[in-house]
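Suppose a colleague, Dr. K., hands you the sequence of a protein chain of 129 amino acids and asks what its three-dimensional shape might be. Before reaching for any lab equipment, you can write down a predicted structure in token form. Begin with the sequence itself:
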Amino acid sequence: MTFSAHAGHDAVLRARVALLSSQTLPARQEVAAYRVLVQVGPLAYLPLLAEALYEYSRQDFAHLPETALALRAEAVAAARRMYSLEPARDRLLITALDRYREQLALMDRQEELDAVEREMAQVAAGSGA
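The predicted structure, expressed as tokens, is then:
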């Protein structure tokens, strides 16, 4: 086993232990753990990562709109990846897009807002919703 493989295994183990601990993790640590675990179990952890990123943006970065937007964009990327793996998970993507849209509206970024709304409509139409 190479050092890098061992380090990856250690990171996964630490992430799992952190999430299973009896104490509530700060949002930052929860996001960090899910970012690691997505690499080994995307179907299980992408939805959890998307939700944790939203909470992190809301709790810790409400006063920093650019950072909050970047975290919500990462949540959308996780939801898109999940949707590509499992198209029945369209609600996850629509929710992530809606939360991203909310931040864009707060920042008055109309052009990007229009693109997100188009994508939401396209995903909703594809699901029959």
